[in-house]
Design goal:
Elements (H helix, E strand, L loop, with lengths): L2 H25 L4 H4 L13 H14 L25 H26 L5 H21 L7 H6 L5 H9 L4 H11 L1 H16 L2
Helix pairs in contact: 1-3, 1-4, 1-5, 4-5, 5-9
Length: 200
């Protein structure tokens, strides 16, 4: 897989992820993303130069094409507008990873049950599945500010919620450390899900 193909896939997968955050927030009563022009699949509304282009390219080159990861600009939302004040943030957070799961399932089952695809198409579809699984599993990690921490938050005792939120100031550093030193922990889960969906 070339770096250009990989960047295109990570960009659009991250856009789908962020779009669903915004759509869910809008559905729950908060129009912030819609008012900011973020309820769109237009890449120009979501591209983050570092997270969508430079970082994925550096990771791809640095790992010899073995890994690619990136993100789009986070969609803004105001949780005080939600109809569901207790679980609204968790629902919005979960929507992004679920969107990646649905994308992985759609293209993975297509790859599995359409036997006449050429090798280039097989490679491209497999990359879509794998990258979306990476985005799903990675974002579900309970590391602030990743989605997993927000999904977990309303189920924790209040003191634990405060402690978890304190880590958010170190979030970017923690995420980068995990990307470069902890990714091997989640790769077996990603590979298992890939084989389960694609049947390879």
């Amino acid at each position: 897989m070339s770096m250009i193909f990989a960047l295109i896939i990570i960009l659009f997968s991250a856009i789908i992820h962020e779009y669903m955050h915004g759509w869910t927030a809008d559905y729950l009563g908060d129009p912030t993303a819609r008012d900011a022009g973020r309820l769109t699949l237009n890449p120009l509304a979501h591209i983050d130069i570092w997270g969508s282009i430079l970082m994925p390219a550096l990771i791809f080159i640095g790992t010899g094409g073995g890994l690619i990861f990136g993100y789009a600009k986070p969609v803004p939302f105001n949780p005080y507008n939600f109809k569901d004040q207790k679980y609204g943030v968790a629902k919005v957070a979960l929507a992004g990873p679920l969107a990646n799961l649905v994308t992985a399932l759609f293209f993975g089952l297509f790859l599995r049950f359409v036997p006449t695809l050429n090798i280039v198409m097989v490679s491209f579809l497999a990359a879509i599945v794998q990258i979306n699984l990476v985005l799903m599993i990675f974002n579900l990690l309970p590391i602030p500010p990743l989605d997993g921490s927000k999904v977990l938050l309303p189920f924790l005792p209040y003191d634990w919620q405060i402690s978890l939120l304190k880590f958010e100031q170190f979030g970017f550093t923690l995420v980068l450390l995990f990307v470069f030193f902890g990714f091997s922990i989640i790769m077996p889960i990603i590979n298992f899900l890939f084989k389960l969906i694609v049947g390879i």
